[in-house]
Amino acid sequence: xxxxxxxxxxxxxxxxxxxxxxxxxxxxxxxxxxxxxxxxxxxxxxxxxxxxxxxxxxxxxxxxxxxxxxxxxxxxxxxxxxxxxxxxxxxxxxxxxxxxxxxxxxxxxxxxxxxxxxxxxxxxxxxxxxxxxxxxxxxxxxxxxxxxxxxxxxxxxxxxxxxxxxxxxxxxxxxxxxxxxxxxxxxxxxxxxxxxxxxxxxxxxxxxxxxxxxxxxxxxxxxxxxxxxxxxxxxxxxxxxxxxxxxxxxxxxxxxxx
Length: 258
Ligand SMILES: NC(=O)c1ccc[n+]([C@@H]2O[C@H](COP(=O)([O-])OP(=O)(O)OC[C@H]3O[C@@H](n4cnc5c(N)ncnc54)[C@H](O)[C@@H]3O)[C@@H](O)[C@H]2O)c1
Known about the structure:
Layout lengths: L8 E5 L4 H12 L3 E6 L12 E5 L5 H10 L3 E6 L20 H26 L3 E5 L12 H21 L5 E7 L5 H11 L10 H12 L8 H12 L10 E4 L8
Parallel strand pairs: 1-2, 1-4, 2-3, 4-5, 5-6, 6-7
Helix pairs in contact: 1-7, 2-3, 3-4
Bound molecules: nicotinamide-adenine-dinucleotide (NAD).
């Protein structure tokens, strides 16, 4: 994989598990140093060479700012944080309005906090990138979890705003929108959807996922962690130097744009 001449340090937020953990490993494999940050202090147990750890809640601007001040020579920032409401989202009035706040606070305001603290530093550096994790749900009015979908739609839009603002400084901003990746977050969607069903009616996680993938994905398969991580490393590389403001769907063709 071709990398920027001075790869520097990559900050991964949401690194404790799932996609963030896979992304952390992929950057380490490619020879980068990684600052792995997460609100879950199990992130402290990541102990590969090249990784340092921070416990950070992205909803707290002061904590994110402290992280940005501590991390010198950062060249790329990857925001893999994400939460769902934990509710079965259709009809939308199943999710009480008060519960929208937490999802928007983590998925959107958390990303804004990261852009505000790291963006000007990257601008001063004159190179590098920010990558947000959005979702196909942010592009199709998904009924699964409306606050989640709305937060991701807003994040896709903010990706474009930030990309325009940072482009004159040589800094790129993109988003990846996964489809179905086998992680705790994905499993929590199944848990919410079967809650309240009698035991004999409940599909297993595998059954639920297989049916959903068959229904929505032309390629008919899960998206794998290593596929997501490979695109993340590519978007941080010099080979992607002309790509900014984009949302790249890795979804087996679930969402197609002309
Ligand atoms: N898994 C999928 O199928 C899927 C599909 C579409 C989009 N995504 C997106 O991909 C990204 C990664 O998702 P995942 O499936 O790996 O989820 P995950 O739940 O496995 O991991 C999310 C991580 O974010 C961390 N986090 C949560 N709140 C935080 C906070 N306030 N501050 C710091 N860290 C916090 C969690 O501790 C966790 O380690 C998310 O943005 C998610 O919305 C995932």
